[in-house]
Specification:
The protein is mainly α and about 120 residues long. About 80% of the residues lie in helices and about 0% in strands.
Length: about 120
């Protein structure tokens, strides 16, 4: 009876650390969304705060799900020797975060100009 090929523990642990980084990102986005709603009532208009907060909260859910999906894909690739998953979801996530940053910057400038 032969032992199945096990992936190197270093790669498995690195994959788990990356998964945990996704979870930290999700928690930070969730905290940012809640803070946008509750802690800065004087910033911008109510609909801008609510919109940005909802996008941050949605990005938190997306980060958690993307991190889990990617971890499972990498785990499978390590176990079977298949190719690593493509980074297309990572690009989409990065573009989404950049769009949020630009939106917050524009809203901040407009708020300061109207005050």
């Amino acid at each position: 009876m032969s032992e199945p090929n096990r992936p190197d523990e270093r790669f498995t642990l690195a994959s788990e650390r990356t998964f945990l980084a996704w979870m930290r990102t999700a928690l930070a986005l969730l905290a940012g969304g809640i803070a946008m709603l509750e802690l800065i009532p004087g910033w911008s208009t109510g609909w801008v705060r609510t919109g940005i907060a909802l996008v941050l909260i949605a990005m938190a859910a997306a980060a958690a799900l993307t991190g889990m999906r990617r971890w499972l894909q990498v785990k499978k690739a390590l176990e079977t020797g298949a190719d690593m998953p493509s980074p297309h979801m990572l690009w989409l996530f990065a573009v989404g975060l950049a769009a949020i940053a630009v939106s917050v910057g524009v809203a901040t400038v407009l708020t300061r100009l109207s005050a």
